[in-house]
Recover the amino acids of this structure.
């Protein structure tokens, strides 16, 4: 097999003319049969890292584990547009549809099957995997193994155990935009990866300007929200809120000012409504999305030039994931963090109402420290948390601008 030719052909199928250096090395490791983990910022082309080896080994099967149904739908849609045999298997499908999907996967009509961790852990799904040649299991957005596995989605912690039950062990590939070195080691252990190749690419986007502003009350925060939208909103903007109630309140506020341009997304909406709202935003029909944290994970949002956090996120992982959805196509963009003392206590309540863990509490405290730090460059603090160093400050963030004015 001429591997270079095979890789080039597979890349062309997915619409890629030339691979980046940061993609080539992990692709080669996977093709050599090695478990591989990649941490790279949004827009770094992580999906190609597993899709190209999957296409090169098209006679075998690849299973991709995704955290969200919307993310599964988006990935399958894009692959099908390129003529790739891809499908999703999820709880929203009828039993007859699920059986038909599995039959296509077994026959080889479907090469890449996208599932949730809960679906992957089912006994009948394990039986199906034992009946086919599974080349690779991909855990996309693998930070969810730790962030969600120890709280409300323990199926993430069972993935490695399920893989161990297969007679022919598949390659395990894990991808995310956010993980510290310690996180990478723990994720690899949870997934039962064997001597994985580990890649940590540069997380810094020099075109993304970080801004943060402490608001003393809700009224000031609403005024700041409108101020920053008026100043930086151009093509499309995302406003993140930490509760459904906040999403709906902010939506009502902005819909008066930007009538016909605003939509919203949260888990309390009917599935058909949420999907329609998200489609309107992604297609450009609506230019402002007000949403809870799950929106946008892994989805291409090339036109977004502004992300505003109306509330303090639960963690720096959430913050860098969500803020990184601005400026993905290389244009100058802004990430605005609005926070108040009330946000911290609201987030504490969210953690306690859900499945509180020591990790979750620690991550929230780190997030608060980041908000309260008025001495150090925001970009440097973010990268330091994820194990990277910036020799010089970004010169553009709120803190850097404040320090320059002092001189």
């Amino acid at each position: 097999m001429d591997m270079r030719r095979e890789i080039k052909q597979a890349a062309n199928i997915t619409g890629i003319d030339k691979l980046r250096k940061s993609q080539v090395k992990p692709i080669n490791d996977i093709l050599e049969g090695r478990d591989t983990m990649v941490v790279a910022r949004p827009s770094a082309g992580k999906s190609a890292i597993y899709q190209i080896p999957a296409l090169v080994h098209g006679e075998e099967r690849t299973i991709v584990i995704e955290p969200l149904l919307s993310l599964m739908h988006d990935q399958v849609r894009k692959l099908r547009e390129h003529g790739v045999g891809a499908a999703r298997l999820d709880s929203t499908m009828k039993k007859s549809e699920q059986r038909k999907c599995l039959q296509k996967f077994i026959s080889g009509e479907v090469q890449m099957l996208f599932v949730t961790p809960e679906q992957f852990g089912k006994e009948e799904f394990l039986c199906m995997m034992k009946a086919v040649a599974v080349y690779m299991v991909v855990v996309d957005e693998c930070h969810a193994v730790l962030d969600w596995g120890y709280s409300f989605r323990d199926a993430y912690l069972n993935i490695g155990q399920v893989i161990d039950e297969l007679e022919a062990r598949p390659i395990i590939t894990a991808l995310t935009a956010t993980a510290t070195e310690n996180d990478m080691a723990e994720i690899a252990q949870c997934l039962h990866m064997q001597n994985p190749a580990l890649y940590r690419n540069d997380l810094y986007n020099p075109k993304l300007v970080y801004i943060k502003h402490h608001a003393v009350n809700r009224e000031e925060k609403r005024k700041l929200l409108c101020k920053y939208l008026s100043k930086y909103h151009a093509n499309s903007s995302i406003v993140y809120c930490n509760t459904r109630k906040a999403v709906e309140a902010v939506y009502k506020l902005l819909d008066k000012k930007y009538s016909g341009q605003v939509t919203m997304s949260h888990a309390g909406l009917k599935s058909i409504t949420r999907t329609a709202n998200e489609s309107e935003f992604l297609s450009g029909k609506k230019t402002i999305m007000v949403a809870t944290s799950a929106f946008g994970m892994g989805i291409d949002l090339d036109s977004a030039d502004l992300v505003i956090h109306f509330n303090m996120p639960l963690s720096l992982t959430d913050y860098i994931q969500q803020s990184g959805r601005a400026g993905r196509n290389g244009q100058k963009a802004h990430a605005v963090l609005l926070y108040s003392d009330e946000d911290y206590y609201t987030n504490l309540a969210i953690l306690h109402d859900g499945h509180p863990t020591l990790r979750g509490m620690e991550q929230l405290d780190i997030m608060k420290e980041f908000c309260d730090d008025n001495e150090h460059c925001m970009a440097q603090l973010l990268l330091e948390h994820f194990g990277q160093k910036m020799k010089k400050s970004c010169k553009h963030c709120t803190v850097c601008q404040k320090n320059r004015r002092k001189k």
In short: The chain has a mean pLDDT of 93. The CA atoms of residues 29 and 36 lie 7 Å apart.
